[in-house]
Amino acid sequence: MTSLMLTGIAELVTNDPAMGDGSDLGLIHDAALVIEGKRVAWVGPAVAAPQADSAHDVGGRAVVPGFVDSHSHLVFAGDRSEEFAARMAGRSYSAGGIGATVAATRAASDEQLAANLARHVAEMRRQGTTTVEIKSGYGLTVVDESRSLALARQVTNETTFLGAHIVAPEYAGDPDGYVDLVTGPMLDACAPHARWIDVFCEQGAFDVDQARTILQAGKAKGLGARLHANQLGHGDGVQLACEVSAIAVDHCTYLSDADVDALASSGTTATLLPGVEFSTRSPYPDARRLLDAGCYVALATDCNPGSSYTTSMPLCIALAVREMGMTPGEALLAATQGGAGALDRDEVGHLQVGATADIAVLDAPSYLHLAYRPGVPLVHAVFIEGRQ
Ligand SMILES: [Zn+2]
Q1: If you measure from the C-alpha of residue 34 to the centroid of ligand 1, how many angstroms do you get, rounded to a whole number?
Q2: How does pLDDT run across 112-134, given as a tens digit for each residue?
Q3: 302 CA → ligand 1 middle, Å
C-alpha cells in the first residue's frame, strides 16, 4: 500500500483530545498527516513525521475532518424560489409546501432526478462535505419512494426512508390509511434501499402516535430510527425519539426543560439545522442550552428545496456560531464528529489514526475562518477515502 504525506499544515484538527493541545478539537500546529490507502496512518507534528512514498504540501493551510452532513433531502425536482420570495415578503412557512415538490418529483424521470442529485452532491463536495445522508420523501407512492431511495443509494450508504414526510395527497381524507401504506407495502419496497427510517412529526404532518407506529415498523424491518421534531412548535416528538432510542432527532428548535433532560440522559443526538431558520426567518434553536446540559449535538444542512436550500456546512457553522451560542470549535465538532454520531459512524468525523481519510483543506490558516469569514468559499481541496 502506498502512502501519501500531507505536509505544510499550519493547523490540523484531529478531534482527538489526546492529541496536540488537548482540547476537544485536538489541534496540532505545524503538523503532518500520512494517508495509507483509505485510512489515516499517522498524525503529529511535522518535525516528527515518518517517511512516506510521496508528499503533498498544502502550503500553510488548515486541515479539518471532512464535514458529515447527516440530514438532507436531495432527491427532488422543481424549484420553490417564488415560495421563498413570498415568505420573505411576509407569508409564513408551513409543511404544506412539500406538496409542490412531490408533484414535480413524481413527474420527473429517473435520469432527471439522478442528474439533480449528482449536481447537489458535487456542490456539497466542493464545500468540504465527505459524508452525506439523503432522505426520500418527495414521492409518497410505493414506486416513487423506492426509486428515490434506489437513486440515493447510488451516491451514499446513508439513505433514509421518509415516506412519512407528509400525508400523500391521495390520502388527504384518510391519514391512517396512509400510515398503513407507509408501514406496509411502501416499507417493504423501500427497506432494501434504506439504512434509516424517519418521520416528520409536526402539526400538519404526523402526530406522535402515528410516528411511533411508523418508527417501530421500520425498526422491525431492521432500519434505524431518526425523527424530524419540534421544528415549528413544542410537541412530544423529542420525547418519542428518546423513548424509541432514535439515533438522532432533528430540528429541536422548541424544547421544554423536560425535552432537554430527556436528550441529556439518552444516546440520541440533537441535530440542529440553522439553514431552516435562516431560510424561513424563524427563531434559531438554542445550541448553548443543549451543550451546557451535556447533550450530543450535530449540525446539518437539511438541504431541501422548500425550507433550506443550501448545501453549505460552512454556512451552517457560521450561523451556529453567530445565532445559536456555539463557539467556532463546538460548531466544527458538531459538523464533523456530531454528524458522525448522528449516523452511528465512528470511522468518520475525525482524523485519528485508523479513521477514513476524509479530509478538507481550507484556504485559511485556521478552522476559525469557517465562522469568521462567512460566505467565502474556503474549501481548497477535499480528500475522500484518501483520494483527492
Ligand atoms: Zn428535513
Answers
A1: 36
A2: 999 999 999 999 999 999 999 99
A3: 5
